[in-house]
Amino acid sequence: MLPIAMLGGILFYPWMGYVQFLSPYLIFAMLFITYCKLDFRHIALGRFQWVLLGIQMLIAAAAYLALAWVNHTVAEGVFICVFIPTATAAPVICAMLGGSLPKLATYSLLCNVFVAIVGPFVLALVGDTQYTFWESFLMILKMVMPLLLGPLLASFLLRHTLPRFHESVKAHQSISFYLWAISLFIIVGGCVSFIITHYQPESLWTMIWLAIGSLVVCLLQFKIGRMVGRRFGDPVSGGQGLGQKNTVLAVWIALAYMNPVASIAPASYIAWQNIINSWQIMRHKSASESNCNK
User: Fold this and answer.
1) Paired strand residues for 245
2) What is the C-alpha to C-alpha distance for residues 219 and 14, in angstroms, rounded to an integer?
């Protein structure tokens, strides 16, 4: 289903403008269903979250400093692919892969709040914008908080007001997979449409290097995240926490703060991370089915 969804997005990209408005609603629904199986007593900041956040910021700084003297636009694009917070949908994929939902939900909240607070200062140094600190802070919060806290609060209220319905939603976690397939169709189509729309012949090589750079840091973050997570007994949460990014926010920041061409990097990252996620889900489901047949 997932490769078909991605292929469909590529083939039908000219029409994605008509359905892209559905993406936040699909993500909200996926998170709501996933959070219904979350035990809120297990949400707590620990060493895992702080170590992962520290490594994320170190990789972001290293990527920018290593590339800035070669090509500043490429440095901006690759930097934002690392600096940007964890995707709001990451807990959904983490749950599908058998990772710790409380760990990743906690890291997602920490990472998004941290970037909202620190981001305006960092982006003022790296990019070029006319926004004030408070304007940037409020814009980032507006883009991340509703999808972060909305499903969390909705699942919490449902648990305490309609427990039977809550248990019913909790028992139908597979719905998240099909919502994810629809989201993937829209996201990949939107990614292809964005890159074609912003194509600039004079910046072709810069755009190619941005796409390659985003692939390198995507693979690197998933790999390092899994290595860190393995030390804490949860490679899946580490990989998704560090590797799966809020690319919609990344594209907006690149367009608002940087050379607009730099937005090709996070747009390409959309494809790379979803290819990796699809491969991980297929591999996990195949392994689960093999274990069931033994």
Assistant:
1) 86
2) 29
